[in-house]
Amino acid sequence: MSPIPKRSLLKIASWSAVAAAAALLAGCGKKDTPAPVATAPAASAAAPAKPAPLKIAFAYVGPVGDGGWTFAHDNGRKAIEKEFGDRVVTSFVEKVPEAADAERVFRDMVGQGNQLVFGTTFGYMEPMLKVAADNPNVKFEHATGYKQAANMRTYDSRTYEGAYMAGVIAGKMTKSNTLGIVGSIPIPEVIRNINSFTMGAQSVNPKIRTRVVWVNEWYSPPKETEAAQTLINQGADVLFQNTDSNAVLQTAAKNGKLAFGWDSDMTAYAPDAHLASAIINWAPYYIQATQAALDGKWTGNSGTWWGVKEGAIDIVSISDKVPAETKAQVEKIKAGLKDGSFVIWKGPITGADGKVLLAKDAVADDKFLGGVNFYVKGVEGKVPAGK
User: Fold this and answer.
1) What is the CATH number of the domain that holds 336?
2) For residue range 72-109, what is the model confidence (pLDDT) as tens digits?
3) Is 300 a domain residue?
4) Mind spelling out the 3-state secondary structure of 268-320?
5) Rounded distance between C-alpha atoms, residue 154 and residue 124, angstroms
6) Structural domain tally of the chain?
7) Which domain holds residue 74?
8) pLDDT tens digits for 116-170?
9) What is the pTM for the complete model shown?
10) Does residue 301 sit in the same domain as residue 264?
């Protein structure tokens, strides 16, 4: 073993002495003050978790490519996505029948976690009401209906305003003084549009008479085509519709007649026959309803009915065939509807049976308009029994 250097021996002796002194102090009860423990720097506050997107579902009665009613609703759905981005997730099911299948579809939408569900046709009312009762935490919106619940409300557009303005154009453009309308289902909404179209035409041409052929479906291009041809064969030279496809407009074009687009701008389907399109813009309502749901301010047991004033109804793409003075008249009516200075359903209005429906200067309220089940003077035939 190598000898330990003297300097090292001195250090060992010194350390031994220190250790002995420390042990003596411990034995006498004296305690050392512990060294302060170093603390880690405070962690930064965790960012709040991003809320899950609101899931929204739409049930459509027709295909999104119908060019009319369903196409307009789907444009409204797309407007929601554009407005709210990743705060929402939307989906849709098209061609949902107004029958028991509708209830199945609504239940499936709820099962997939949708918190806001839109049903976009009148016949969904009862199935939606039933599903809403079973799912009180889900919000339901029903288009064109009248039944409501704590978690279900209704919304509609004043399509009769667009129909009236189209009628003004038709009254000026007809040569036979016979107008033809392809009707879908005889409910107040549709009958009101037929009457308003006729009233608009009569306001510029008192000789007008209107013929109606019912197809009892919202979307059926073959039936719509057949009905349009029947009306043309009966002498109608300007056609209008309350159905969802572009078949009426195309049939008019094939026969050298004139017609209107409905619900969406249908110019492209038959530009030579197209006089104008009475359109619905669902985007303002859909955006408002979605915002209310996101903000926790959505309420049920209520209804909304918007028109030109709210930007929901318009008449667009008026043909160059239409005289300038008629275009100006339509624009004046539109401005009046927007500021409230013009009223369509104002007396005197007489029914097809000769009875006075509204006395001179009387104005129909929404309750009256919601119960229209009659033809006004100038519409031929009788209103068929509804579903």
Assistant:
1) 3.40.50.2300
2) 999 999 999 999 999 999 999 999 999 889 999 999 99
3) yes
4) HHCCCCEEEEEEECCHHHHHHHHHHHHCCCCCCCCEEEECHHHCCEEEECCCC
5) 11
6) 2
7) 54-158+283-309
8) 999 999 999 999 999 999 999 999 999 999 999 999 999 999 999 999 999 999 9
9) 0.87
10) no
